[in-house]
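How a chain folds remains the central question behind the approach discussed here. This step matters because it turns folding into a mapping between discrete strings. The sequence in question and its structure tokens are set out directly beneath this paragraph.
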Amino acid sequence: MLVFRVRNLHRRYHVLLCFSIAGVIIYHFCGVQLGAKTMTRRVGLKANGTQLTLEGKAFCILGGSLHYFRVPRAYWMDRMLKLKACGLNTLTTYVPWNLHEPKRGVFDFQRELDLETYVSMAAEVGLWVILRPGPYISAQCDLGGLPSWLLRDQSMLLRTTYPGFTEAVNSFFDKLIPKVLPLQFKRGGPIIAVQVENEYGSYAKDSTYMPFIKEALLSRGIEELLLTSDTHEGMKQGGVSGALQAINLQKLSHEVTEYLDTDRSGSPKMVMEYRVGRVDVWGDLHHVLGPEDMIATVRKILKRGASINIYMFHGGTNFGFMSGASWHLEPKPQVTSYDYDAPLSEAGDYTAKYHLLRDLLGRYRSIPLPDMPVLRGAEAYEAAIVYFHLSLWEALPLTEGPFRSESPISMENLPAYNGNGQSYGYTLYETTISDGGILNSQGNVRDRALVFLDKQFLGVLTYKILELAVPDGRGVRTLSLLVENGGRVSRGEQLDRQHKGLVGDVLLNDVPLKDFTIYILDMKSTFIDSLRWAPWKVPPYTPTFPGFFQGRLFVDGYPSDTFVKLPGWGKGVVFVNGQNLGRHWSVGPQQSLYLPGPWLNSGANEVIVFEEEEADLKVHFESSADLGMAADI
């Protein structure tokens, strides 16, 4: 057994090493320090021939993806300790541009977005960090993590060197990169590598783009190892000179196995994303990958001497409207949960995958793994009765707007928020008509519209349902279309065409509708807070839809995690104490929403449900998640 010990005057952290000797992987802990500037901090992580070295010593990355923006801040340390206790030595995280710069020039690095604290906390735990700053990250986020205000430029070419895009990237990096420079390995921090963009090989529209991103990082002071990550097919066009090419995979196909077995590239092998699950979409099944399949693949990768990163080690939750969409001839909106069938569940519980992975990595250790942190289980609370009701129409005075327009305007191009438009949620378009007939969307509804005539529901328009009958009537009547952004696609050729709302004319009897009044219902916390002054109805009342329903959840003692379940409800959004927990939809597969204990108060908690279709008037709180009927990947 080879043993390396590097001492530091301050504190010691252990780093997992691996060597490929006669086909056997040997792991040991090395005392390279985190958090201290020493004379030994000069070399950093390097690709030396076919192996990685850290400070000149052979090093194997055993990583796990854990996204700070998908985990309540109060649980960051808990998830990191569980990652380390599993035998992993490196944490990897994306940086979501759309959350950090929600409006052009307005940046947010606070609370759940405090990246500096997150990376520093990883160092305290004893983990190295691989930073994946984008600017495009995919990650099944809305628009792949790009801010929607980019789409206000009608000529925008995302992920290219189009000036409008590169100027925005430079502005973002000017704010982001200085925050992480002191956290690099050579400056005493835990960041040992930085990724250049993400899976560009599957896009590859501009041969000058990856060199631009690389230079944008280097010129601002990034000095650690650069890497790229792509699928096996994307590796042909996704790389950039001077960056280690890593591979993303879920199964060891013949081509992937051949890549891992060959030394023709003369560089270290790294699986940047070994995908242990898959994101779910509404109306489908919950997809899982068997624990035995996972561990067999991990074992094969390690036996080949490759570094590995588990994607996801802990998925977390797409709180709010973060979830994106998949594209299969049409967009398929993704569910709120990002459980991803990961070794650590959405609520941070250990799974069979966790125990198998810990057992595998523990076999090659010269010292025992850290103890597994104790779990604190979820609670089932008494159901909240929604005593108060507010119709959508009664809430309109509290929304952003109204705006007047001759023709429909997409969400992104609305004259709101100092020229940034609307990013997420719903938009209500109203106009008047004097005739009945056939309403034809021409495919300009993105993504789903509830249609009303004088506040009476007529039907739904979607990508597939393009026409709707409007009954005849007397006089001038109000036609309303409540359009939901179900999530912009996170990857693919459709990326530039992700405008939401009404993106073109809607016809009535082949004549375009005109003279719209437009309201923004983006469901921001300021709007939810303003509802306290709304004219809520109390029992007895007849609920109308869409509408808001309010009740109280009572917690006795210290709050615990719980899961919101809505049997008898249709489709909408849930808020607790002003926090947007995400979308719910009876079509499944997901049937529960994760509610973290730190977001609850001891005593009374406000529960608000925006509901589009139907309501049972009770909100249930259970002790276990329900992600729907499972299907093997």
User: Anything to note?
Assistant: The radius of gyration is 26 Å. Confidence is low (pLDDT under 50) at residues 1-32, 35-40.
